[in-house]
Write a structure and sequence with these properties.
The complex is a heterodimer. Helix content of chain A is about 20%, strand content about 30%. Chain A is of the alpha/beta class. Chain A folds into 2 domains: about 90 residues, Beta Barrel (Elongation Factor Tu (Ef-tu), domain 3), CATH 2.40.30.10; about 170 residues, Nucleotide-binding domain of ferredoxin-NADP reductase (FNR) module (Rossmann fold). A 7-stranded mixed sheet of chain A has the order 10-9-8-7-11-12-15, sandwiched between helices. Chain A has a 6-stranded antiparallel sheet with strand order 4-3-6-1-2-5. The longest helix of chain A is centred in the C-terminal third of the chain and has 14 residues. Chain B is globular. Chain B has one domain. Chain B is α+β, with helices and mostly antiparallel strands. Classes of the chains: A alpha/beta, B alpha+beta.
Chain lengths: ~280, ~325
């Protein structure tokens, strides 16, 4: 048996260092990949994804929720929804996992330099956008105004809320939070709007002609927010959408993530709205 | 003159000689009464005039199910494919071209190691074909995508070596070969049709798509028997020893699960899936956009249980049997 650990279809070993519960079904997993994985992982661009393996269960594509850490660890925000994520949520700290990547095209950071950026996250869509947000804030002087609008179903499902509030308090980030439903019980602790993300966008005035927008959330969100942003004056090639598909191989072979003649794992997962208009099954 | 002709009476000797180069496989009639590529126990099993096998030769490079990664003691390692040197005899030009297309997919950058191993172990001996009513390639022709090609004539075969392996075979078979008396011509093209030259145009909203989708039962036969369909799924199974195996299996874009994501399906209707399949087939996609992967073998038409015939879409295109691919 030959060890070909650097082939892109073969995961590197990674240790589950820490698990932080973020909501009832979602946790942030910090994993430490073996040293051989670091050269490729250090090239991570926000919006790209990695393939996380839980031995014996399978592999899932996840967009890291943070930038590449100097110590080589990776933060992955995962909701417990299926076979592999079930196994991941049950894995004790110290377990061996597998990791390969990053894959795909991330956000066009160089092109976005000098422009205001509006981030729109729905639900778990905050995870991939968090890595973009952290990059923008770290390099704040190179970008225009940074705004995050984040909508969750209910207050207890709002991820990274305290961290986001802290980032906003430091300045450099305009933060707008909204929940779909207000619970009957008082939830206390923070205030946010009640309503859907498009409602939040409606009353928002910004330099649309000069802005980039980055959207990540459930499929329905893309359809309405894309159109809303265009109406507000954002150019469709500057409306960036991080799409979700079931990338199996991650390297453009299995065809599971195809949309029209494009592959989400190679051409995406970050696409421009202008690229997707001709593809009926994209959004 | 070079000795490149194999007389019919020497074919069985030639097949025995091929066994020196690997396990000999070729077209046989299966117990179910369909043509199939299988080990040739004896030369008499060979179906020299077969039309097409139900399952294409892609199974030699991409088995229906195979382990690609093995997890043991904290590490994933690439699996070593089983199997040894194989000589596949009697592959028609369309199927040879199909394998060449699969090579482009799996041997490109970051070549797939299981595929590459199987490919290196496979010797392809091509055979000219006799088109039937299901074929729609660009005519009986030779294909260079093999090690050795046999053009069948009335009295025998004209051999053309296409690789070092093929030259080694013709050298080993020198005693069986005679000088060519006259060129063996490919049989005249009677029934074959032509692949569309500008497929993009045919993928507009044509009413035939709706008709096809109403008939389609999403059985996926057209994809299973397509020599260039290679969609796959990856699954992982734990083993009792504490390890695990990651398995690659054929998948099918006609199945409703193919376009599923959490909370939705991007190709929920048969119309969308059918159109998607043929868009991919005829227009290609990243990184092979613009490359038609259909080789016109006719399997999808022959094995479709509801008789969907894509040629209906292409019928108003000019027939040009002499067109070179």
């Amino acid at each position: 048996m030959t060890l070909l650990a650097n082939h892109p279809d073969t995961p590197f070993a990674a240790k589950l260092l820490q698990r932080r519960q973020l909501s009832e079904d979602t946790a942030l997993f910090t994993v430490a990949p073996e040293a051989a994985a670091l050269p490729s992982l250090s090239r991570f661009i926000p919006g790209q994804f990695v393939q996380l393996s839980v031995p014996g269960a399978g592999e899932i594509p996840i967009s890291p929720a943070d930038l590449a850490h100097e110590d080589g660890t990776v933060d992955l925000c995962v909701r417990r929804v299926g076979h592999v994520t079930d196994a991941l949520h049950q894995a004790p700290e110290g377990s061996t996992l597998g990791l390969r990547g990053p894959f795909g095209a991330g956000f066009p950071l160089a092109e976005m330099t000098g422009h205001p950026v509006l981030l729109l996250a729905g639900g778990l869509g905050i995870a991939p956008l968090r890595s973009l947000l952290l990059h923008l804030l770290q390099n704040g002087e190179r970008f225009g105004e940074i705004t995050l609008m984040y909508g969750a179903k209910k207050p207890t499902l709002m991820l990274f809320r305290e961290e986001l509030a802290e980032l906003a308090a430091r300045g450099g980030l305009r933060l707008y939070l909204t929940v779909d439903f207000a619970p009957e019980e008082p939830w206390g602790g923070f205030s946010c709007a009640v309503g859907l993300l498009p409602d939040l966008l409606k009353g928002f005035s910004f330099d649309a002609a000069n802005s980039y927008a980055a959207i990540c959330g459930p499929p329905a969100l893309y359809r309405c927010l894309g159109a809303d942003l265009e109406r507000a004056g954002v150019a469709p090639q500057r409306i960036l959408l991080s799409l979700e598909r079931r990338m199996r191989c991650g390297i453009g072979r299995c065809c599971h993530c195809a949309l029209g003649q494009k592959l989400c794992c190679v051409d995406g997962p970050v696409f421009r709205l202008s690229e997707l208009k001709e593809i009926p099954e994209a959004l | 003159m070079a000795k490149t002709t194999l007389k019919n009476i020497h074919l069985s000797h030639f097949l025995e000689l091929l066994r020196l180069f690997g396990e000999l496989h070729g077209p046989v009639l299966s117990d179910q009464g369909v043509f199939s590529f299988a080990p040739l126990a004896s030369a008499s099993d060979l179906q020299l005039n077969y039309s097409r096998t139900q399952i294409p030769p892609k199974k030699y490079l991409l088995p229906f199910r195979e382990e690609i990664l093995h997890y043991q003691k904290g590490a994933y390692r690439q699996a070593v494919p089983y199997g040894s040197e194989t000589v596949l005899f009697g592959v028609h030009p369309c199927d040879l071209d199909a394998m060449a297309y699969l090579d482009r997919v799996f041997l490109a950058e970051a070549a797939d190691s299981c595929y590459a191993t199987r490919r290196a172990n496979l010797t392809l001996v091509g055979l000219s074909c006799r088109p039937d009513d299901f074929c729609f390639c660009s005519g009986p022709r030779e294909s260079a995508a093999c090690d050795l090609f046999l053009q069948a004539g009335e009295d025998g075969f004209s051999l053309t070596a296409r690789s070092a392996k093929g030259e080694a075979i013709t050298a080993a078979a020198a005693d069986l070969l005679v000088e060519t008396e006259k060129e063996i011509e490919p049989p005249a093209c009677g029934s074959c049709n032509v692949l569309p030259q500008d497929p993009q145009l045919r993928f507009s909203a044509h009413p035939l798509w709706v008709k096809f989708a109403e008939a389609c039962v999403s059985c996926g036969a057209c994809s299973v028997c397509c020599p260039t369909c290679y969609c796959f799924d990856l699954r992982e199974y734990p083993s009792l020893s504490g390890g695990a195996e990651r398995v690659r299996e054929w998948d099918n874009c006609l199945f409703v699960t193919h376009g599923e994501v959490a909370g939705g399906n991007f190709r929920a209707t048969r119309l969308e899936r059918l159109r998607y399949r043929f868009l991919h087939k005829y227009c290609g996609f990243t990184p092979l956009t613009g490359i038609t992967s259909c080789v016109g073998c006719g399997r999808c038409k022959e094995f479709c249980p509801v008789g969907i015939d894509l040629r209906e879409l292409f019928q108003d295109l000019p027939l040009d049997c002499g067109r070179t691919p």
